[in-house]
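Field reference: sequence -> structure
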Amino acid sequence: MDEYHEHSPHLKRGVRLASVLAWVRLARVFQKISAISARQFREFDLSQAQFDVLAQIGPAEGLTQQELARKLLVTKGNISQLLARMEQHGLIERVQDGRCNGLHLTATGRELAHTVVPQHEALISGLLAPLSEDEQRELLRLLRKLDRGLA
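Structure field:
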């Protein structure tokens, strides 16, 4: 902990400690929710990344590969491999639109998204249920503020 303090001498010790503890708690909560989510996705033979693609393309049919990569915060190379696998499984298709390919869900992908997305939303709502609606809004506000500060 001393090395950490040397790198942030502008912060008071209590603030540094609170920051580190908040970060550790945030990481722990994220890991727990991710593990629970992964179990749910396995029931549908999906990975977290595949779910993310279904959830993003569903309401935004025609999204380009580059737009999707930007939304998911991944590289174009990573998204290419992921989309190729999903195309092989019949979940998405690439439709030529001018000079680029638009991403669309197939009927199978759409049916899967219509099932898994609401179930996942219900799961997340249940996991956040220990917080009141006001607390959830406050958490969202604070996370947005933190996110903007990191941009």
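Note: The chain has two domains: 1-43, 46-150.
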